[in-house]
Amino acid sequence: MEIWVNPACSKSRSALRLLDEADATYTVRNYLADAPGAGEIRELLGRLGLEPWDITRLQEPAAAELGLAGRPRDADARERWIAALAERPELIQRPIITADDGTAVVARTEEAVRDALGRR
User: Fold this and answer.
1) Alpha helices in 22-77 (DSSP H)
2) What is the pLDDT of residues 75-93, one digit of tens each?
3) What pTM was estimated for this model as a whole?
């Protein structure tokens, strides 16, 4: 199990605390310092069963700079969204837990973290 975190994010810290309380074995990835490439983001989206716009933090200043709110959300625009996430990883929703069973969850709630723990 791996958890993608922003150490400054309270949701990330909360998810880490829950994993520790459950004695889970996991690795931590600060995805701002160790940014995922486009291929990794595509793989992650497949594991999540989501599209790139579903995991984009549109309230971030970088989203406004890139005009993401007005960008189409369709198959033709998908690669542009992925490129934006790879270029500006702060736009990726956090935390994200990749489970050993090949799935992943956006772990912003306690329930989502517990769901990921059940997927070990």
Assistant:
1) 38-48, 61-66
2) 999 999 999 999 999 999 9
3) 0.93
